[in-house]
Design a protein that fits this description.
Aspartate Aminotransferase, domain 2; about 15% strand; 2 domains; Aspartate Aminotransferase, domain 1; transferase; alpha/beta; binds pyridoxal-5'-phosphate; about 375 residues; about 35% helix; 14 helices; PyrdxlP-dep_Trfase_small; EC 2.5.1.48; Cystathionine gamma-synthase; five-stranded mixed β-sheet
Length: about 375
């Protein structure tokens, strides 16, 4: 035996060694208690368990699996992805300067704009996939740089190592929303990021039945991480034990699901790119994509399950294609085992999303079935 760390497939399948100590069950139980016992001398029977607000063994087990997959020093779960986003920004002092990648997940942009306006935080939005533009924004000192790669729904790729370099020179920490990549394809902390965030509601859980968010850090002692951890404890933005247990269950198959979803997404992207009624396909796995070279460097094992496609024609034509799909569910979200399609312009009409853009989240179904479904939907009837 060497001391090499275990590989992701092993960490995930065995839930980082979590079993049930009380019953000897292979699968750990769900710990629902909100409070913990003291002995006759009034000492806590377990020093790390006092009250359930953020002291819960089921939550800790789920966090430990994600910590190991991420190669992180520490990991904290939150009740949603947005609660994890908010936890980072709430840790900033008033008057801070923040650089936010433009054109990313709309929920993040909207909340960050509102929050920064309320809190007197200077916000600059920049296309971080353009390394020159990001470097220019980082010429003045800053506190936080926030990027999302691959981005949703444009599938732009940010060079994490380069972003970390310019962010650190500006005195800022780099936070990466790697939801579309998952910890299986990209480990941003290894590339120089300070904190990585995921909406665990997406591929990490993977079964479209849990809302959760996660933050992992490289340096537990950093002031921002200390502030985030204290705020979660004091303000109580915690995940419930049942959700944490479902995550622990879902994540066991994450490497396997990601592998199949990436293969399917690439097959779907290649089919669509060659289709006469398709204007363009946005997917970092395609050599034609502007981010392909960077994605090939910083993603290993695939390019993710998310892609966008621009349909030739107009809004009505794009909606017609959506309406004809039989296997792709018409629904928002991404990263689940079942494929989804979304007409993003309908959801966020004022943010510059083309009316012909369809966002696909490719699941683990048979790739041939998915392609046949798209082929019949694209067919002019
Ligand atoms: C879904 C998503 C979020 C928000 O996560 P929730 O769990 O829905 O709150 C943040 N970032 C990205 C990239 C997402 O796809």
């Amino acid at each position: 035996m060497t001391n090499d760390p275990l590989k992701p497939a092993t960490i995930a399948a065995q839930a980082a060694g979590a079993t049930d100590g009380e019953t000897a069950g292979v699968v750990p139980g769900i710990h629902l208690s909100t409070t913990y016992l003291r002995d006759p001398d009034y000492e806590l029977m377990r020093a790390d368990n006092k009250y359930g607000r953020d002291e819960n063994d089921t939550v800790r087990q789920a966090e430990e699996v994600l910590r190991q997959l991420e190669g992180a020093a520490a990991t904290l779960l939150f009740p949603t992805g947005m609660a994890a986003v908010a936890a980072v920004f709430r840790a900033l002092p008033s008057g801070a300067r923040v650089i936010l990648q433009s054109g990313i997940y709309w929920g993040t942009i909207k909340w960050v704009r509102d929050f920064c306006a309320r809190r007197g935080i200077i916000l600059e939005e920049v296309d971080a996939a353009d390394a020159t533009a990001l470097a220019a924004a980082c010429r003045s000192s800053a506190d936080l740089v926030w990027v999302e790669t691959p981005s949703n729904p444009w599938l732009k790729v940010v060079d994490i190592a380069a972003a970390a370099g310019v962010a650190h020179k500006a005195g800022a920490i780099l936070v990466v929303d790697a939801t579309a990549a998952t910890p299986i394809l990209t480990r941003p902390l290894d590339l120089g990021a300070d904190i990585v965030m995921h909406s665990a509601s997406k591929a990490i859980n993977g079964h479209t039945d849990v809302l959760a968010g996660v933050l992992s850090c490289r340096d537990v002692a950093s002031s921002i991480w200390q502030a985030i951890a204290m705020d979660r404890h004091d303000a109580g933005a915690i995940i419930g034990p049942f959700e944490a247990w479902l995550l622990l269950r879902g994540v066991r198959t994450l490497p396997l699901r990601v592998e199949r979803m990436c293969a399917n997404a690439l097959a779907v992207a290649e089919f669509l790119e060659g289709h006469a009624l398709v204007e363009a396909v946005l997917y970092p796995g395609l050599p034609s994509n502007a981010g392909h070279a960077i994605a090939s460097r910083q993603m290993s094992g695939g390019y993710g399950s998310l892609l966008s496609v621009l349909i030739k024609g107009d809004r009505a034509r794009a909606l017609d294609v959506v309406g004809r799909l039989r296997l792709f569910h018409r629904a928002t979200s991404l990263g689940g085992v079942e494929s989804l399609v979304e007409h993003r312009h309908t959801i966020e009409p004022h943010t510059g999303i083309p009316e012909t853009l369809l966002r696909l989240s490719v699941g683990i179904e048979d790739a041939g079935d998915l392609i046949a479904d798209l082929a019949q939907a694209l067919d002019v009837h």
